[in-house]
Amino acid sequence: MIGAVQNLISNPSLYNMTQSTITQITTETCLKAVGRPGFILMDNNIDPQTKKFSSTKEFLYQMTCLGIYLVAVMPLLKKYSFKVARKLCKEDVFKAFDTASDFLKYHKMDEAGKLAKLEEINTNLKSGDKFVKSNIDEELGKGVTELTSIIGSVTGLAIVAPIASHPLIHPIMKFLGLDKNKNEKTEQ
To answer: Are 114 and 106 in contact (CB under 8 A)?
Structure first.
């Protein structure tokens, strides 16, 4: 048992996942989507109808925010982060790679893979630039990528997702029979 746990926590793939802001945000939001409704449902001081309403709304809110973050905010930020960095910094890492995703694939390669990738990039270049591994500042590229993820987290989860989720949640709640408008409540 201890050996299995040790193998799990020393796995390089798991380590790489834990170093990603997107993975951390996704994990945290999924835990909130399960944990918060669970704690609401366990509270015996709340009437059953309120428990159902509150826990369902919290689950839908967390999942909607996560969906907006993963589907809209992060892809847009990832798409444009290297383009903006290319304009602001004239570093080789931003010239050699078109997107943050291209850079991250390179960043995760072993030394032989990195040299082969740079050779491929140099072969396909139309400009006179030639890229060598020693001039590719991986820390700068990783820093820009992670800063983009942090900005995306704040922007997506604190500003965009809450605004966008409310018009989506109430129709779903109404469809489930948990959200009734004022006229329906007075008739009952």
So the answer is: yes
Is 89 a domain residue? yes
- Give the count of domains, the chain: 1
Q: Is residue 4 included in any domain, yes or no?
A: no
60 touches 172 (CB < 8 A): yes
9 within domain boundaries: no
**d(C-alpha 8, C-alpha 175), whole Å:** 42
Task: Give the residue numbers spanning the domain of 138.
Answer: 21-178
**For 130-150, b where at least 16 C-beta lie within 10 A, e where not — what string?**
ebeeeebeeebbbebbeebbe
How confident is the model at residue 41, as a pLDDT?
Answer: 94
Task: For residue range 99-156, list pLDDT tens digits in order.
Answer: 888 888 898 889 999 999 998 988 887 777 788 888 888 888 888 888 887 888 888 8
Report the alpha-carbon distance of residue 83 to residue 76 in Å, rounded. Answer: 11
| Measured distance CA(133)–CA(181) in Å, rounded | 63
What is the number of other CB atoms lying within 10 angstroms of the CB of residue 187?
7
Long-range contact list for 133-136, CB < 8 A, 24+ apart? Answer: 135/92, 136/92, 136/93, 136/96, 136/106
Is position 10 within any domain? no
Q: What is the pTM of this model?
A: 0.70
